[in-house]
Amino acid sequence: MSVSAAKDLGQALGRNPDRLTLEERAALAGKMIALEVYTPATFPLRRIEAIGDSIVACIRMLQERGLDPRRFEYSLLGPAY
Fold it and tell me: What total of structural domains would you count in the chain?
């Protein structure tokens, strides 16, 4: 995903936030992301399942994908440093 591709947030889906390049992280800084919550019954992969400007946008994206928003944690994606 290039910096200009940061406008297409769907390209970040399925990626580990720690594996984004410095340029990608800078372009996406300030966006909210949804990661599946860890429970003893599951060991989810740490990957972005939704991304948007707000938690509401993330919830909407998860629902559109048929996922239960209650099974996710939401956090602000900060800059790499």
Answer: 1
